[in-house]
Amino acid sequence: MTRITTLLGRLRGAALALAAATLMAGGAAAEGYAPQKVVYHVNYTGGEEHRAYRGAMRNIQNHINAVGAENLVTRVMLHGDGVGLLKAANADDRLQTTVASLKSQGVSFHVCANTLRGREIDHTTELYDVWEEDIVPSGVAHLSHLQAEGYTYIKP
Fold this sequence. Notes:
The chain is of the alpha/beta class. The chain is 49% helix and 15% strand.
């Protein structure tokens, strides 16, 4: 399967997931929240059946549902064991759908280059939907940078 065919399939899945998320959220964000910028920090293992990763993704979706995607700038910083989220998603359709849905709502996933190098991970073949522009030189330095830019730090 070509990369374009794969991308089209993922986009189709993301569109379906976004429609489902919108229906679950009632199609409207809760009143009273000002625009927010947040960074979710994931540097732990997913555990059995990737429960910790699924929980983190659920927290992000709940945040979007409460505030509204249009009022939220969301970054997910993955480093250390957290890179396992996108490694697991490479082989897990459910995680793929969740990640694709979050991306379709404007969530950006960032991956630490130090982790990729240190663990000899090839992002083009071993991680789900990671591009060069998603990779940052240092996960912890990027967390600090985003906080200096006014992002609220969240460790789900």
